[in-house]
Amino acid sequence: MKIKFALSAGLILLTGVGLAFAGKATKPAADQPAAVEQQEMKVKELKDILFKLVRQDEYLDEAIESLNSTEGPIGLQDISTLGFSLKSITKNLNLVSALNKTEFSTMQPGSNLSKYTNAILSYSRKVNRKAVKVNGLVVQLAASKKKAGMRDAVSSGKTGKKAPGKKLTQLLKEKTALDKLAAEARNLRAASRGLSATSNWLYIASR
């Protein structure tokens, strides 16, 4: 009986000690769910930024395709549509830059998020290169339209007919639309540079 009691007492003592240690071990573990949840939230936010960038990259591809179109000369409607598209992309790139700054302010070094921030940086650089290309294509378009416009204006002046006079009005509208498109292309270029900078800061902060 004594042996059984001592054995039982020993088991109770070991169990008690085990519970005591378990209690101590669970204290830091209690903070783990909050840390995991915060990490998951960060991943979700960074994935959202990356998704937005991928979409803008696709829109830039469409803009480049339109500017490189071989189907015929780009008309007034096409120029206006392109201007609206570039304005929308610029707005979204500025939004992503703002999100990058927000993430940067709360980013913890060594948080194992660098693979996401590196992807964001990679796409930002890709977008920046395409913004440069768009700007160059718009400059080329404006130069070719100006040359064609001067040629048409000379022809209209020589004929002095009423019909060509309407064409001069059309050329003036195209010039105004082209000026707006060029301005949007410059704004896009500035936004893409800002995006690259904030993406770089975000990547450095996550390492």
CATH architecture of the largest domain: Up-down Bundle
The number of strands is 0
Overall geometry: elongated
Find the CATH topology of the largest domain.
Methane Monooxygenase Hydroxylase, Chain G, domain 1
Distance N terminus to C terminus?
64 Å
Unreliable parts? 1-27
* Overall tally of domains: 2
Task: Give the biggest beta sheet.
Answer: none
The portion of residues forming beta strands comes to: under 5%
Q: What is the structural class? A: mainly alpha
Tell me about this structure:
The chain has 207 residues and is mostly helical. It folds into two domains: 1-30; 32-206, Up-down Bundle (Methane Monooxygenase Hydroxylase, Chain G, domain 1). It is built from five helices and no strands. It has helices spanning 2-29, 32-67, 76-106, 114-159, 162-206. Helix 2 runs parallel beside helix 4 (114-159) and helix 4 (114-159) runs antiparallel to helix 5 (162-206). The longest helix is centred in the middle third of the chain and has 46 residues, at 114-159. The protein is elongated. Residues 1-27 have low confidence and may be disordered.
What would the keywords be for this entry?
207 residues, mainly alpha, Methane Monooxygenase Hydroxylase, Chain G, domain 1, 2 domains, 5 helices, 90% helix, 0% strand, elongated, disordered N terminus
Secondary-structure blueprint of this entry?
Layout: H1 2-29, H2 32-67, H3 76-106, H4 114-159, H5 162-206
Helix pairs in contact: 2-3, 2-4, 3-5, 4-5
